[in-house]
Amino acid sequence: MKTTAACGSTIRKIGAALAFAMLVASQGSFAQTKVIIGTGKDPNLGAPLIVAQEKGFFREAGLEVDLRYFPTGGDTIAAFVGGSIHMGSSGSTPTTNLRSRPFPVKIVARISDISGAQQLIVKQDVKRLEELYGKKIGLLKGTASEALFNSIVKGYGLDISKFELVNMGPTEMLQGFVRGAVDAVALWEPHSTRARKTGGGKVLVSATHSFLGPKPVAKRVYGDHSVLFASETYIREQGPAVRAVLTALVKTMDFMDKNRKETIAILAKALNLDHADMADIMNVNRYTLMLDKEMVADLNGLSGFLYGLQRIKTRPKAEDWIDPAPLKAVRADLVRLK
Question: pTM for this structure?
């Protein structure tokens, strides 16, 4: 029986490999086989790219991928505009800022729904949001951090004028929270995990859940996504390479879903995180390439927020700068747009 089971497993693996090879072959010949992709060394932005590189899925798709890491999404965008990377993965805010210039950037897939990774961290004794009235809240203006806090204020019926908002970067927020210079911080993973561990904090609310009661309650007040992007010219001239990247990422997402322990080990090592912390971060991220109506609504909501604050001068519509064609050619079921 063991021999039969082993043979069956081997046959299934060979079949999967052949199917993957046929899919790769169907993408057409490459004008370019080396692709430089930029991302953050961050579980929200780069996790599937890191796994794809580690497991050799890009190589199996016929590509030599040079995966380059940048400190922030803004740095990734700067490298993209400067021409030193071909494709990139970043959060919604930096990419929306770029599109609004306007710049001919196109979203070809999602990397993750990172809404749950956006969190308001407070000290352990804080039980209600209203207890933060008159207190200092650390956030980074013009980013998802500010959008999250504004969405919490709106979603929970609070008075924003009663908070003292302090503009800070993530490292400064973490240090300020540990020292007590700010009473709460609107942060994203893995910074929020570090704030909990080193600053004695806890999550009071996130973009997707309330932790105000004895048990977490689902309450989505804000949507944020990390996205995979390229220029209109690159998509047009290097279509087979773009589709090959997506082919490798389709296999990666399937691997991450079915091999959670190995995925956690790969990412914990690459990102210098504890296994338990990496597991927690994976729990609040939804890794998927899917392009759907919820993502479109979230992107349009973000552009409206940034435009209202005069952070951007034009208001791009997600329908105009999402290009579903490459993903549809690879996995049509992952495109759920009108």
Answer: 0.86
